[in-house]
Amino acid sequence: TAHTLPCRLAMDVDGPKPTFVTEPNLDLEAYAAQYEGRTKIARLRFVASVCPPLQLDALKMCLPELKAGMDSRALREVSRTIADIYEKSGQAPPPLPTSKDADQMQTAAAAQCDRLENELKLSRGNMVKQSIRLGYSDLGRHHHATGDLQNALRNHNRSRDYCTSPKLLLDMCINIIKVSVELCSWQQVLIFVAKAFDQMESCPEEEETTAGFLHCAAGIANLALGDFGSAARSLLKVPFETCEQYKDILAPRELTLYVGVCALATYDRAALKTQVMDNRNFKSYLEAVPEVRELLRSFHTSKYQQCMTLLGNLKSDMLLDLYLHGFVDALCLAIRKNAIVQYFSPFLSADMTAMAQAFNTPLQEFEQELTQLIMDNKIQGRIDSEKKVLYSRSANQRSSTFKQAMSTAAEYNVRAQALLMRVAMLRKGVCVRSRMEEHQLHHKA
After folding, report:
1. Whole-prediction pTM value?
2. What is the C-alpha to C-alpha distance for residues 409 and 412, in angstroms, rounded to an integer?
């Protein structure tokens, strides 16, 4: 599946079928220009797989990158798919890479692989650590370029024993992270991100650029694992000054979108304001993506109907994203629930009819949503179904004060008994002394 699917996360063979986008708003050329290398190919192939109107254009844009690379299997698949599309439409296809071209690419890759393996054998025979490490790293990068991800990961892991400095260990971690992201091995990504940060303490010259890459990888991994809060926190740390250097993993526009929707799903209004909207670094991202900036602003100013409308406008772009696709419904639902919670948080009571209008939802459906939020302990309240009023369930101050006093008394009782026991043991001479104390007592005696 590493060869045939651009990412197992969004298009799992055994998982639910992907949602298809029939009316895309995506500017495909601008989208593709943000990325390079295998990431560009993976994202374009994913767009082609879930968006029939953009399928042909997306696959055509893959061809220059594939021709410049060494992944002969991907070249065959893309060329075959393009030819099938033209055949079904009854049109003559443009000149496409042939099987002969793919065979030549495969032969050249195999020859290079043999050369690298021979060089590695020679280095191992000479027992030169630096040469062995370079041999494994070169083989890992070669296998990665050809799409053989498991062998790439194996060789990068083997280079670890021959890394003789923190800088070399950091490079090894980054190589493994790149392969693991493509394999969708998210726990492994997080493990090696943590290891890379440990090595960075000894490599201050690598700090800003490398840290940004690591935060990007951690953000994507947390998003893929459904931890939206951690994803937002990681991506907020990516410096805007270096964001253009991460074309092989995440572009600024997608980073802004990820932070926006993940923060809306998990942050309250105060945290959204201080940690996202007023974040000096992230303001630069928001200026470049005004639709996300307006989405955050509408949520913060309690314009929830407008917020839901803006979120709906972004939904097609989210469905076309390699990593967001499988979480669009979950994120939209989490954002809506968070919006309802934030709407009610400052009130002791609220008219459910007005709330339903604010969220552009029929009253009966909205009452069911509120009931579920109360059952999930998201809202501390109770519903008056006759008057259609939601009341805050305020704590009984007398009862809570009594419970606190009893808890304090019980704690005092435990401490007093422990103190009395200690005094009694000291009086009876039942105590444990250190060797130094025993020596001093014996010396005095």
Report:
1. 0.82
2. 5
